[in-house]
Amino acid sequence: MFTKILIANRGEIACRVIKTARAMGIRTVAVYSDADASARFVKLADEAYRLGPAPAAESYLKAGLILDIAKQSGAQAVHPGYGFLSENEDFAAACEAAGIAFIGPPASAIAAMGSKSAAKALMEKANVPLVPGYHGDNQDELFLKTEADKMGYPVLIKASAGGGGKGMRIVERSDDFIAALASCQREARASFGDDKVLVEKYLTRPRHVEIQVFADSLGGCVYLFERDCSVQRRHQKVLEEAPAPHLPAATRQAMGEAAVAAARAVGYVGAGTVEFIMDVESGQFYFMEMNTRLQVEHPVTEMITDQDLVAWQLKVASGQPLPLQQQQLAIHGHSIEARIYAEDPDKGFLPATGTLVHLQPPAENAHVRVDTGVLEGDTISPFYDPMIAKLIVWGETREAALQQLDAALAAYQVVGVTTNIRFLRRIAANPAFASGDVDTGLIARYHDSLLPAPAAPNSEQLALLAVGETLAAASDDNHAFGALQGWRLNSTLERRLGFAHGDSRIEVLLRQQQQEQQLVSVNGSDIPLRASLQGKQLTANLGGKQISATLVRHGAQRVLFADGERIAVDYLDPYAYEEAGVHGETHMKAPMPGRVVALLAEAGTRVAKGEPLLILEAMKMEHTITAPADGKVLAFYFAAGEQVSDGDELVDFEAD
Q1: What is the secondary structure of 116-145 as a DSSP string?
Q2: Which residues make beta-bridge pairs with 221?
Q3: CB neighbours (10 Å) of residue 517?
């Protein structure tokens, strides 16, 4: 077994590998960019070395420098994690040439599966079923359009070297094919440096079911059952679970055996995932691709098999046989993983950046696990994937796991960046998901119920916000409500507070007479109230109901966590409130940092509501900025190719 390994990755996966390595008595070496100099994984590793500036091309993708550090540090092996160089055949070959073990498959297996089109040709020879489509080398746009027309719409254009939902487009009509192809190719070039695509028939109700395979260098190969990853948005996984709900045992076995056949066909070694697309109506499954690395969602497999897949990786990479044979593997219980992202579901899941000014995950135990690479005070930067954590739960049954998931999501507290936690809770509560009736269209089908307008704070929440704000403003020390500054014997203290929620302004009157406290909410009802505040922890008695809550003050924002709910408002001085000016309504601003890819309209022209104005690329994905109403484009403030910051004015737009 190795005594020291280098982890050529960052964030939660680096922390995850360090955890297992430490348990096995293996020292770890971290590499980091300038943006990650104080990151959690750097602090956890035994040694850490700087790679370079924040952009991945100048740091985590510098294969030669990473190998030099491995030699310098005395690391005997490199764990690539996922993303970055994890599926780079040249890097795997360079490790082997340098006498350093690559904790992953041989370069030949990565090469065989690295091209989606080549992999499908190989799978066809191995009798693994394939979705109808074109997987060849001809990339002429008219030829590809002709192939798509033959298949019939909808079709899926997919980057041949892609993954993670990048470089993928669903095309519903022949007239839209050329534009979608161009967009897909741009995104593929930006993400993978390769704009080759394949075109496949798009199944209208598909499930995404993947098989975890593991092979050793001695000829052993097993499958550790399946994961259902059907709940997706923009082809990126949101929730994953194991085992797949309502999957017949015979189908599970057939898929597992097909996955093993796929792995054996390329001489596979290590952890891999064979992804299948499954037709809900017929139950037929088809090979999509093989990911030649550890997957983001591997923890759900670990939870139902009681195995440490990173430990398996280390053992196999050091030449040991698989820890267990197929007949020794069994499924126990059910596990679900939710990806906690810094993103705004209400704005098309735009990535969010900022500082985690408050971060309190749920307590970990036998049923709840949190894999994270960040701590309170860390920054979510625009340079990398905006994942905050993976929340993994386990239960004896799927119903028990769902209950654990909702409770854990309700307990997850984040302030400083917008997150998808509320959205995840709504998915978990969705009747179709709860019953296991899942497919990749679930989010789109239930879009309105999953993304309703944020609810306004109720009277109790307003009471807590008002008294919490008053206590916090009174002193940095602990105070009971009865000790507020301004109280006088036989007189009444009144304080008027203003909060903004969306476009609404809410006014609250807080009134105190001696030891009697009352809060008058916007609807005029009085709520008897006693409260104390210690740090962020607010304890209150509202009309006999005892409540423990957390109140976080961040700039003008006030965020309350109470009864499993999160409510965010802005604190206003009610006597200095000003209406927003016209400027904020007509100057469209960048919702995130990024690069302008293309301008889709001309200054001086009229456009209709929803018409695309420009394309912004951020975190290697394209986002289209559209007209908010019928009106006129007066000016663009940036040209194609220019970088923009969050909040920069993009378009001077005059609405009718």
Answers
A1: HHHHHHHHHHTT--B-SEE-SS---HHHHH
A2: 215
A3: 23
Question: Do you know the residue count of the chain?
Answer: 656
Q: Are 90 and 84 contacting, i.e. CB atoms less than 8 angstroms apart?
A: no
Give the Cα separation of 268 and 108 in Å (integer): 9
Q: Which residue has the tokens 């194609």?
A: 640
| Residues contacting residue 446 through CB under 8 Å, at least 6 positions apart | 430, 432
Contact 238, 339 (CB under 8 A): yes
Separation CA 236–CA 275 (nearest Å): 14
- Token digits of residue 461: 């929440």
Q: Per residue in 359-416, pLDDT tens?
A: 999 999 999 999 999 999 999 988 898 999 999 999 999 999 999 999 999 999 999 9
Pick the closest to residue 81 from 63, 103, 65 (CA basis): 103
Q: Residue 126 in contact with residue 265, Cβ under 8 Å? A: yes
CA distance linking residue 148 with residue 178, whole number of Å: 11
With H, G, I as helix, E, B as strand and everything else as coil, classify residue 35. helix
CB 110 within 8 A of CB 94: no
| E strand or H helix that includes residue 562 | strand 557-562
Query: Max Cα separation, the chain?
Result: 91
Q: Which helix (H) or strand (E) holds 579?
A: none
Q: Is 10 known to be catalytic?
A: no
Give the C-alpha separation, 494 to 519, whole Å: 10
DSSP 162-199: --TTTTEEEE-SGGGHHHHHHHHHHHHHHHHS---EEE
Beta strands in 235-317 (DSSP E): 236-242, 270-279, 285-291
**Three-state DSSP class for residue 472:** helix
Q: How far apart are CA 102 and CA 93, in angstroms?
A: 8
371-377 long-range Cβ contacts below 8 angstroms, 24+ apart: 371/12, 371/15, 371/16, 371/299, 372/12, 372/15, 372/40, 373/10, 373/11, 373/12, 373/13, 373/14, 373/15, 373/39, 373/40, 373/41, 374/11, 374/12, 374/39, 374/40, 375/40
Rounded Cα gap, residues 510 and 519, in angstroms: 5
Catalytic residue among 16, 40, 293, 566: 293
Using CA atoms, how far apart are residues 336 and 433, in angstroms rounded to an integer?
12
Give the separation between CA 603 and CA 614, rounded to whole angstroms. 12
Distances (CA, A) of 96 to 80, 90, 108, 291, 478: 14, 10, 12, 20, 61
Question: How many Cβ atoms from other residues are within 10 Å of residue 221's Cβ?
Answer: 19
Q: Is residue 62 very low, low, confident or very high in pLDDT (cuts 50, 70, 90)?
A: very high
Question: CA 242 to CA 517: how far, in whole Å?
Answer: 51
- Assign 505 to helix, strand or coil: strand
Question: Rounded to an integer, what distance in angstroms lies between the CA atom of residue 388 and that of residue 375?
Answer: 9
Span 78-114, pLDDT tens digits: 999 999 999 999 999 999 999 999 999 999 999 998 8
